[in-house]
Amino acid sequence: AGCASLDFSKKNPHLLAVGSHDGGVAIFNVRRGGAAVLDSSSSPGAHTDPVWRVAWVDRGAERGEALVSCSTDGRVLEWSTKKGLEASTLMVLKRVGDAEGVISRRAAGLCVDFP
């Protein structure tokens, strides 16, 4: 699948997170090259639409750095790297306003940013 987004880790600059058009998230070690060291292909709860933004977020000295992704499936996910890539939902984007003619109440996410 084609690459839709990427971001290098600030704490480990050799780690590159990639979001793809098929909804996948992967982490590559650019020092080694080759295949992804972690990917979401077998992760329940992974994105089902293109991942338009991946970002490494610094959560402070105690909690370290987290990988977050945003997709047009309407979800913002945080990825744990302790046992492969495991997703947990940070938020679900929803449409607001007039519901006339709306097929889905979910809103597509194209970008996300954290301080």
What topology does this entry show?
Blueprint (H helix, E strand, L loop, with lengths): L2 E6 L6 E6 L4 E5 L8 E2 L11 E8 L6 E7 L3 E6 L5 E7 L23
Antiparallel strand pairs: 1-2, 2-3, 3-4, 5-6, 6-7, 7-8
What is the gist of this entry?
By secondary structure, the chain is mainly β. Helix content is 0%, strand content 41%. It has a four-stranded antiparallel β-sheet, with no helix packed on it. A four-stranded antiparallel β-sheet has the order 5-6-7-8, with no helix packed on it.
Order of helices and strands: EEEEEEEE
Sequence stretches where pLDDT stays below 50 over 5 or more residues = none
Measured distance between first and last alpha carbons = 30 Å
Shape: globular
Strand content: 35-45%
Mean pLDDT: 86
Q: Which sequence of strands runs across the widest sheet?
A: 1-2-3-4
- Give the class from helix and strand content and strand pairing: mainly beta
- CA-based gyration radius: 15 Å
Molecular structure report:
By secondary structure, the protein is mainly β. The chain contains no helices and eight strands. The chain has strands at 3-8, 15-20, 25-29, 38-39, 51-58, 65-71, 75-80, 86-92. The strands form two sheets. Strands 1-2-3-4 form a four-stranded antiparallel beta sheet, with no helix packed on it. It has a four-stranded antiparallel beta sheet with strand order 5-6-7-8, with no helix packed on it. It starts with a strand and ends in a 23-residue tail after the last strand.
